[in-house]
Amino acid sequence: MPEQRNALTELVRASVGSGRRMSTREFAAAAVDSESGWSPSKSLVAKIAKGEGYAVTPQLVSAIAAGLDLPREIVAAAAHLQTIGYAAEELTKGAPATVIRMLHAASDGPKAAAVAERWDAEA
Questions:
Q1: How far apart, in Å, do the first and last CA atoms of the chain sit?
Q2: CB atoms inside a 10 Å sphere around CB 31
Q3: Contacts of 95 (CB under 8 A, 6+ apart)
Q4: Rounded to an integer, what distance in angstroms lies between the CA atom of residue 99 and that of residue 106?
Q5: 53 or 91: which carries more pLDDT confidence?
Q6: What's the confidence (pLDDT) of residue 73?
């Protein structure tokens, strides 16, 4: 059974919103897909940060990567984890493993810590 969590939402939530590194307005201005020029609206950014429903698209992944100043492959792995999930063995290396470490560092929840520790032990 694949492991799944709201990884893309968690990445955005760690940096965007009240009391965080960027406001939703600042993030929306910085989050621009370099290929198409598309940028999420401030209201879409707020939905993502709140964990409300939203469609994950290639343009959104690229825009979030630009806004967070992260490699696109890391944000794409978070989107994959959120929408499809990964088998535990897929989370031991590369971008998926990096996402898990990043989420573990940004999270203070015991469930997230336990999952990350288990995946680290299996690696």
A1: 17
A2: 24
A3: 71, 73, 74, 76, 77
A4: 10
A5: 53
A6: 94
Q: What confidence score (pLDDT) does residue 123 get?
A: 47
pLDDT per position as a tens digit, 1-37: 456 788 999 999 999 988 899 999 999 999 999 999 9
Judge contact between 69 and 27, C-beta under 8 A: no
DSSP string computed for the chain = --B---HHHHHHHHHBSTTSSB-HHHHHHH---TTT-----HHHHHHHHHT------HHHHHHHHHHHT--HHHHHHHHHHHHT-B-GGGGGSHHHHHHHHHHHHH---HHHHHHHHHHHHH-
Residue with tokens 């696109």: 72
93: tokens are 């290396």
Q: Compute the mean pLDDT over every residue in the chain, rounded to the nearest whole number.
A: 84
Q: CB count, 10 Å around CB of 60?
A: 21
Please give the model's pTM, rounded to 2 decimal places. Answer: 0.76
Nearest to 106 by CA among 10, 26, 27: 10
